[in-house]
Amino acid sequence: MSVIYVLLAISITVALVFFVAFVLSVRSGQYDDAYTPSVRMLFEDELLDQESNLDTDKAEITQTKRTNQ
Amino acid sequence: MANMTCYHCGDDCGRDKVRFDERDFCCHGCKTVYEIFTSNGLSNFYEIEAKAGNTPKEVRSKYDFLDNQEIVSKLVEFNEEGVQVINLSVPSIHCSSCIWVLENLNKLHPSISNSQVDFPKKTLRVTYSYVNFSLKGLVLMLSSIGYEPYISLDEYDKKEKRKDRSLIYKLGVAGFAFGNVMLLSFPEYFELPAGEAGVEEFWLEQYKPVFRWLMFAFSLPVVFYASQDYFISAYKGLRSKLLNIDVPIALGVLTLFLRSTVDIIFDLGSGFFDSLTGLIFFLLLGKFFQQRTYSFLSFERDYKSYFPIAVTRLNQDKSEENIQIYKVKVGDRLLIRSNEIIPVDCMLIKGSAQIDYSFVTGESQAVFKESGEKLFAGGKQLSGLLEVEVLKSVSQSYLTQLWGNSVFSKDKASAFQTLTDSIGKRFTAGVLTIATLATLFWLVYEPSMALNVFTAVLIIACPCAIALAAPFTLGNMLRIFGRQKLYLKNTNAIERLAKIDTAIFDKTGTLTTTKKDAILYEGVELTTEEIALLKTTLRASNHPLSRSLYGILQSNAIMTLDEFQEHTGKGIEGRANQHSIRIGSAGYVGRDSIQTSADTAVYVSSDDDFKGRFVFKNSYREGISTVFQSLGSSMQIGVLSGDNDGERKQLQKILPVRTQMHFNQKPEDKLQHIEHLQKEHKVLMVGDGLNDAGALAQSDVGIAVSEDINVFSPACDGILDASQFNKLSTFMELSRKSIQVIKMSFVLSLCYNLVGLYFAVTGQLQPVIAAILMPLSSISIVLFTTLMTNALGRKLNQPTN
Question: Where are the transmembrane segments (chain B) (predicted)?
Answer without folding.
Answer: 167-190, 210-230, 242-258, 264-285, 427-445, 451-474, 741-761, 767-788
